[in-house]
Amino acid sequence: MAYGLGEDIKEVYTELGSLATIVNRTPEIENERVIYEINAQATKPFIREHHLDATFPYDTQIETGDVLFIEEMAKYYMAMNKTAEMFENSKVEWNVVLYLCNLPTTACFLRPIEIRNPISYDMVSGWQVFAPPPVYGLLTDRIYGTNLEQGEIVGQVPLWRIDCYLPKWYGLKPLDRVFVSSTEYYKVESVENYNYPGVVVALMTEDTRPYVNVVDGEIYDG
What we know:
Blueprint: H1 2-16, E1 18-22, E2 29-38, H2 45-50, E3 51-57, E4 67-70, E5 75-79, E6 83-87, E7 90-100, E8 108-116, E9 123-131, E10 138-139, E11 143-150, E12 154-167, E13 177-181, E14 184-192, E15 199-206, E16 212-215, E17 218-221
Parallel strand pairs: 9-16
Antiparallel strand pairs: 1-2, 1-4, 2-3, 3-7, 4-5, 5-7, 6-7, 8-9, 8-13, 10-12, 11-12, 12-15, 13-14, 14-15, 16-17
């Protein structure tokens, strides 16, 4: 009975659902169907612009942390959770919250690396790209606060932090660099792994470390 209901509901997705592709799988999973609506929290513009409430048929292959390209919107979204809609102890539909992936196509993730300069033979600190473009994630607005400065002058100093929601399978670590563009990049201060099953939250601050790019063991300035 429940299985038949799941099949009946799936027919609605075939007729009315939007086509989507799970892009992070190899090979990509095409012809997924999704029905979505804008989040109803009208008083919070960021949520309305970046969050979707979505449903999928009972046999969808999407999992938390997957990145979905919705064709009619021409945008990428990340699955933040996946909750079953049950009927008579069987899954007939899935409820999924989607976050917009707003990192630009130039974005990539870099990791600190030590390498010997071929000219001076000195060991230098550089950066190696471990996740080349495109990478997917939601970069949030800056959150301002204060920090206790315990140096020569004790007091509160201003600071800002920016958060990035991204799939756990990237393996981002503290001290990595999130490179958005040549004029915008951040240092990962910490990575929260416990809030979402397949997604992490990287807490980032301004990165003032020098930039020396390392590609295949060779040093490149840039």
